[in-house]
Amino acid sequence: MQANTTRTPTPSHLKIIYIIYALHIFSALNGLLSPALVITAFLTGWPSIIALLMSYIWRKDASDTYLYSHFNWLINTFWSALVWLAVAWLLIITVIGMVVGIPLMLVVGLWVLYRLGKGFFALNDRKPI
Description:
Structural class: mainly alpha
Oligomer: single chain
Radius of gyration: 16 Å
Shape: elongated
Mean pLDDT: 86
Distance between the termini: 11 Å
Largest sheet: none
Strand content: under 5%
């Protein structure tokens, strides 16, 4: 669903979405710099959880702006990554599925980084995602 972008976002909403991206990116990069995987750091790190809550709180205020698509993009990224993490864990707990589950976690981690980067660059260009 394409967001209707009839209004110009306020500077405060723009600042909030940048903060939300920064929190998500901080969590994901923490997974690269620690023994945790990107996906687990992204989903369980306090910055991402705070960012998810912020996205839900301020999304409605950004309706009719291009920022609305960014709020949805980040919310969908979080919940999709959680579903894929659950699938990977279900595969891992079966010994046979471990061969597929661990690479799946790595692929989803890269997918999260891709989505955060793509969204951030679209935001920098002041475009919907």
